[in-house]
């Protein structure tokens, strides 16, 4: 008899509403995770409560408000895209099953922080008779700040449990040929529609430099993705660069910083750039606001003439096909 299987796509999470209260509650859950911020707890507790959670929600809520809805959807983009990616993957997998009998896995989604959480998602699936789970973090590059917390949450779910189900976690897919090809196609299509800029910048979410020094392979994964994408697009070394965005706090993060590099390029006379964000499977605050608005302004104010942002893979069919391939390679569907 075939076991009932389920795939759970996971992403970071997002506020439930674009208000200071909604942002505060999301940041509290996210920034309390020791995997994300490694500052010793008593000190971090004071900084988090006295400064971060009192000041940042008021500053960030208007930015969330700006990206909250578009012509296509209502609400937070990362929530919308993650939910729709799960629906599209589910449709693709069941369309491939024998008519009438769904032999493939059902597909749903969960967020590491905020709703829907992993615990309630797994509990619902177990109630529905699911015995085998595949957790697929939508982080192509592994990081101790994003992928590892998902391992922690899965382990915590079953601590002390007698009947631990068969549950697998995808570690990364930073060099998967279908991932690289989907990124390359999105760039080629962007060139065909908008013309080609002087340089392509691959901007990844940053992390503290010390995390990499202590063993996080994130930088290595970002470098490999970038080289493979540059190769697929037949770019010369002076036609592209890699950088890191979204620095948080005073510590040194991975360099070069996206904002600094774009300002330097503008001052040096680089006329036009396009920016792609390969570490994000879905558009979100960090791409739609930080890159397409804030960093665009930095480049143009520094002398740059043309800036364009290449959207994340979101609901592209080649992205959903890549997710199907990852699911299959893990013995599901
Ligand atoms: C210590 C701080 C942070 C680390 C480390 C970090 C790593 C990291 N984050 C993502 C993906 C996303 N981050 C997003 C938002 C966001 N990230 C941080 C801080 C760290 N991230 C903050 C404080 C925020 C909230 C916004 C803000 O206050 O500036 C998001 C967007 C969520 C949304 O609602 O749209 C994503 C996605 C990755 C991939 C990563 C390490 C590799
Ligand atoms: Fe982040
Ligand atoms: Fe940001």
UniProtKB/TrEMBL annotation:
Binding-site residues, Fe(2+): 205, 286
Associated pathway: Porphyrin-containing compound metabolism; protoheme biosynthesis; protoheme from protoporphyrin-IX: step 1/1
Catalytic activities: Fe-coproporphyrin III + 2 H(+) = coproporphyrin III + Fe(2+); heme b + 2 H(+) = protoporphyrin IX + Fe(2+)
E.C. no: 4.98.1.1
Keyword terms of this UniProt record: Cytoplasm, Heme biosynthesis, Iron, Lyase, Metal-binding, Porphyrin biosynthesis
Gene3D superfamilies membership: 3.40.50.1400
Protein location: Cytoplasm
Annotated SUPFAM superfamilies: Chelatase (SSF53800)
Short name of one Pfam family: Ferrochelatase
Domain of life: Bacteria
Enzyme class: lyase
Major location (coarse): cytoplasm
Job of this protein: Catalyzes the ferrous insertion into protoporphyrin IX.
Annotated family: Belongs to the ferrochelatase family.
NCBIfam families cross-referenced by the UniProt entry: hemH
Listed name of the protein: Ferrochelatase
Protein source organism: Biformimicrobium ophioploci
């Amino acid at each position: 008899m075939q076991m009932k299987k389920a795939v759970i796509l996971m992403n970071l999470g997002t506020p439930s509403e674009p208000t200071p209260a909604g942002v505060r509650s999301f940041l509290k859950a996210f920034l309390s995770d020791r995997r994300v911020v490694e500052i010793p707890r008593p000190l971090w507790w004071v900084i988090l409560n006295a400064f971060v959670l009192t000041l940042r929600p008021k500053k960030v809520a208007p930015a969330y408000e700006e990206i909250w809805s578009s012509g296509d959807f209502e609400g937070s983009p990362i929530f919308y895209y993650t939910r729709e990616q799960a629906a599209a993957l589910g449709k693709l997998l069941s369309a491939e099953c024998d008519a009438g009998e769904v032999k493939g896995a059902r597909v749903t989604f969960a967020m590491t922080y905020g709703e829907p959480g992993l615990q309630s998602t797994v509990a619902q699936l177990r109630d529905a008779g699911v015995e085998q789970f595949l957790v697929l973090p939508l982080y192509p590059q592994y990081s101790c700040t994003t992928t590892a917390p998902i391992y922690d949450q899965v382990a915590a779910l079953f601590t002390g449990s007698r009947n631990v189900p068969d549950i697998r976690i995808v570690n990364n897919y930073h060099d998967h040929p279908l991932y690289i090809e989907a990124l390359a196609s999105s760039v080629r299509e962007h060139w065909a529609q908008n013309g080609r800029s002087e340089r392509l910048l691959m901007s990844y979410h940053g992390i503290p430099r010390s995390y990499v020094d202590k063993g996080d392979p994130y930088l290595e994964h970002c470098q490999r993705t970038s080289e493979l994408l540059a190769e697929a697009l037949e770019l010369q070394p002076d036609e592209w660069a890699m950088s890191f965005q979204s620095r948080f706090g005073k510590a040194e993060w991975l360099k070069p910083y996206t904002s600094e590099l774009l300002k330097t390029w503008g001052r040096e006379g680089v006329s036009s750039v396009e920016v792609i964000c390969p570490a994000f499977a879905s558009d979100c605050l960090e791409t739609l606001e930080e890159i397409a608005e804030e960093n665009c302004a930095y480049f143009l104010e520094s002398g740059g003439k043309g800036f364009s942002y290449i959207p994340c893979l979101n609901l592209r069919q080649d992205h959903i096909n890549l997710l199907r391939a990852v699911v299959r390679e893990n013995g599901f569907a």
